[in-house]
Amino acid sequence: MDFGFKLSPSSAINLDKVDLEKFEELHRAEPDVYKCMACGSCTSTCPANKYSGMSMRKVILALQRGKEKEAVSMMRNCMLCGKCTMVCPRGINTRHLILSICRIYEEDVK
Amino acid sequence: MKENIVIVGGGIAGLEAAAQLLELGYKPIIIEKSDRLGGHVADWNCLFPDMSPAKDVVSSLIARSAEANIFLNTEISFVNKLKDSYNIMLSNGISIITRIILMTTGFSLFDASKKEEYGYGIYDQVMTNRDLEDWFNTGDDKRINDSAMNAVGFVHCVGSRDEKARNSQCSKVCCITAIKQAIELKQKFPDAMIYCFYMDLRMFGKKYEDFYINAQRDYGIRFIRGRVSEVGENIDGRVIVKAEDTLSGKPVKVTLDLLVLMAGMVCNPDSTKVANMARLPIDSDGFLKSKDNVADIIESPKEGVFYAGACTGPKTVPETLAEARAAALKIYLYIKGLE
User: Domain residues for B118?
Assistant: First the structure.
């Protein structure tokens, strides 16, 4: 219940208010996005992660939790090297997925 | 009773089924391609969750099934379907006419060298779960140096849940096997730091969860949620493991004296070969396809052909033994129905 004297907005994710319209569009374009089991292989092998915090695992999760800005700002550091595609045990074409995310969340990128 | 019953595979499933059929008054024929009985369990040292010695299980099975006709070093050359029976030709030249075949062909251990990024066969200090069991049995492995075992890592899901390795199934027993082996290593090297790199821990069986809690609380084994992506070697020959600690969201790197890969269960190519000869269908996971995966796991869609154990998918030892007993009863009732 909001009594009106909170100093900062809650950091809780309110799934009632998350708008997944774009994520659904992404899912239509990239059905494999739901195959991610968050094992972190992509992140640990990502050369950009060490310097920028880019994490494919976190991007996929953030998009599903409505934290699109956070996801897109991480994505800016991707160099499309494709190492994550090589290590993904579920065979997700992460490189293709990244390009689709760029296309669908385009206005957020600008 | 002179009904021929052919059991393909002399692992624990084949031996248990043979022992039960002997009790029921039949004299089954066991065909085993290697030179000894007991299958994979005979390579193991101790079994979870009570650390019972594997050799006790195997030797009691061998003793109980000793009256069966056992062909070692024998393979099946071909299988012909006759009107209401099968003609099985063995590699030793013997041919058997039978109305009943029990497939207990089991699984193969995933070849860990296929996952090149983990360095099995490339770096000196990388071994598999089977190599470690072998060391528990013999105490002889040049990778394990008693005076320099300060840090050991276990990699779960090697070749399991891995579409790149063309095995999307969970091998089921490696989670608990890793915990068992981690505890055993910690008992031998109490000062060593032991890490388990996992994606999910699946503690489904009796007392597995207790075993896991033991590993954490009593043995201080460190569990890191992240799949190992790469393994390298440093100038001292130690291995460097890279993963993401997904719970903290940070990359993690650790230098180890030994890395143990938990190779999973995959379908046995010899099982597929025999299945093709007898025209048995293969399921989408590569293992033999049962008549029904819920109600009739031990029956094949073919008349007179039955399954037991890991030929239909990864199984634990007690599950395999239970299936073997069920298959023996099923065969008994099937023969009764033929009379």
Answer: 112-265
pLDDT tens digits for range B197-223 = 999 999 999 999 999 999 999 999 999
What would be the CATH architecture of the domain defined by A21-109? Orthogonal Bundle (1.10)
Long-range contacts of B137-140 (CB under 8 A, 24+ apart): B137/B43, B137/B45
Contact of B240 with B255, CB cutoff 8 Å: yes
Number of domains into which chain B is organized: 2
Measured between CA atoms, the residue of chain A closest to residue B198 is: A39
Q: Are residues B248 and B279 in the same domain?
A: no
Query: What is the band of A107 on the pLDDT scale with cuts at 50, 70, 90?
Result: low
Cβ of B133: how many Cβ atoms within 10 Å? 20
What is the per-residue pLDDT across B109-133, written as a single tens digit (0 to 9) for each?
999 999 999 999 999 999 999 999 9
User: Cβ A40–B243 below 8 Å, yes or no?
Assistant: yes
pLDDT of residue A18: 87
Kindly list the distances between the CA atom of residue B144 and the CA atoms of A31, A50, A90, B109, in Å, as whole numbers in the listed order: 45, 33, 33, 22
Nearest CA of chain B to the CA of A108: how many Å?
24
Predicted ipTM of the assembly: 0.75
> Do both B124 and B224 map to the same domain?
yes
Judge whether B242 and B214 are in contact, CB under 8 Å: no
Specify whether B222 is located in the same domain as B280.
no
CB atoms within 10 A of CB A85: 18
Question: Which residue blocks in chain B are alpha helix, DSSP H?
Answer: 12-23, 54-64, 129-138, 174-188, 208-217, 269-277, 317-338
Tell me which of B243, B265, B287 is where a domain ends. Answer: B265
Same domain for B314 and B300: yes
Chain B residues whose beta carbon lies within 8 Å of the beta carbon of residue A49 = 251
* pLDDT 10s digits, A48-97: 998 898 999 999 999 999 899 999 999 989 999 999 999 999 999 999 99
Query: Same structural domain for residues B241 and B299?
Result: no
Q: From the CB of residue B242, how many other CB atoms can be counted at a distance below 10 Å?
A: 18
> How far, in Å, CA of B64 to CA of B59, rounded?
9
Q: Which of B265, B287, B307 is the endpoint of a domain?
A: B265
- Chain B residues whose C-beta is within 8 A of a chain A C-beta are 117, 157, 161-165, 199-200, 225-230, 242-246, 249, 251-252
Same domain, B79 and B180: no
Point out the residues of chain B with pLDDT beneath 70. 1
**Is the preceding omega at residue B49 within 30 degrees of 0, hence cis?**
yes
Give percent of chain B above pLDDT 70.
Answer: 100
Are residues B134 and B52 part of one domain? no
